[in-house]
Amino acid sequence: MSTPVVLPNAVAAAHRAYVLANIARDRATNHPEQATLLTIADCLDTAALAFQTEPPNRINGVTITNTIPADAWLALHDAAETARNHPCAGYPADLADYVTQPVFRDELRQFEPEDLEGDPTPAKQREVALRAALNSVHSLITPVSDRALVASLFRVALTLHAELADAQH
Questions:
Q1: Looking at residue 89, what DSSP letter applies?
Q2: Residue 90 and residue 116: Cα distance in Å, rounded?
Q3: Domain boundaries, the chain
Q4: Can you say how many angstroms the Cα of residue 19 is from the centroid of all Cα atoms in its chain?
Q5: 0.85 surpassed by pTM
Q6: In the list 26, 44, 84, 120, which could disulfide-bond 17, CB 3.0-4.6 Å?
């Protein structure tokens, strides 16, 4: 039995999922949303494993590089739903985009200019500053960013997401 060939973009997606899972586990200690963060980590581990073990789709002998395994998609969906239902955990509802960026080759979401405007209250100014900082970090994360850069920037981005969640609640 031969080992399935895993494409470099799937390896990169698996790495990203593991990084996000490890950040969730690190943050879970003494966090009020500990169970939520551990659930997100488990989902991300499942997605990473699927990226590492499921061979790419082939149609008429052509390898399709811009698809993700079904198990990865389901696990990322579950992680995103958990994040969406528990915003105080500090994980964005669009966290799957961080993982799938090397596969789909798109840029991470940028906040729109209207999201960067607001009333002059200190609380709103803080939210605007956090969104602007996230835009800056997101612009540095590309589909081909190396592993060390991805790990560092993901930590920064998730810290900003957690701060934004705190500012909004």
A1: G
A2: 20
A3: 8-168
A4: 9
A5: yes
A6: 44
